[in-house]
Amino acid sequence: MINDHVYEWLKSKGFEDRLTEHSETIDTVEHAAGQIGCTEAEIAKTLSFVVNDKPVVVVMAGDGRVNSSKFKALFHTKPSMVPRDRVEELIGFAPGGVCPFGVDKSIPIWLDVSMKRFEYVHPAGGNEYTSVKLTPDELEQASDAVGWCDVCKGWEENETV
C-alpha cells in the first residue's frame, strides 16, 4: 500500500508517478536492490542521526558507509544514529521505509555525493514495500534537501555508472 502522505508530497513536486509498489519487502539495501532490479549501490538509503539533540537525515548510496571524521567535520559531533525504537516517532516513518519525503520541515535532509554517480537512485517511499525512482537532481528537488554533503566512505572504489 502506498503511503498517502508521501504520495501527496511527491504529487506536489510532480513526482508521484515515480512511486513503485513491490510485492516483497525492500526494508534493506539487499532486499530493495533485488525487488527493484538495480545494484545495491543505487539504493538511496535514508539514515537518521542525532545532532545537538535533534534529528538530521542523511541520504546516501547503498554502498556507502558513514565516515566519522567527515561527519564530524560537517556536523561538529560524532555520528550517532537515532535509536531504532524512536525513528518513527522522530522522523515519521518506520525503519525499513524511512524516506526523505514529507519529513517535518524542522529536520534537515542532506544528500551525500555518493549518489551523484548514478543516473537514477531509489529511496524508500514511506514504507517497506514502496520505492521512488529519481535522478539525483530530482531527489534534491523532491526532498527539499538542505544540500549535498560528503560524509561517506567505501563507495569510491565502486565508482562505476
Structure description:
This protein is of the alpha/beta class. The chain has helices spanning 4-13, 29-36, 68-75, 87-91, 136-143, and strands at residues 19-21, 43-51, 54-61, 65-66, 109-112, 122-123, 130-132, 147-149, 152-153. β2 and β3 (54-61) form a beta hairpin.
Q: Which consecutive residue ranges, at least 5 long each, have pLDDT under 50? A: none
Number of helices: 5
Largest sheet: 5 strands, mixed
* Assembly of the depicted chains: single chain
Question: Secondary-structure element order, as H and E?
Answer: HEHEEEHHEEEHEE
Beta fraction: 15-25%
What does the radius of gyration come to? 14 Å
Task: Briefly characterize the structure.
This protein has 161 residues and is an alpha/beta fold. 24% of the residues lie in helices and 22% in strands.
Topology:
Elements: H1 4-13, E1 19-21, H2 29-36, E2 43-51, E3 54-61, E4 65-66, H3 68-75, H4 87-91, E5 109-112, E6 122-123, E7 130-132, H5 136-143, E8 147-149, E9 152-153
Parallel strand pairs: 2-6, 3-5, 5-8
Antiparallel strand pairs: 1-7, 2-3, 4-9
What are its keywords?
161 residues, alpha/beta, 5-stranded mixed beta sheet, two-stranded antiparallel sheet, 5 helices, 9 strands
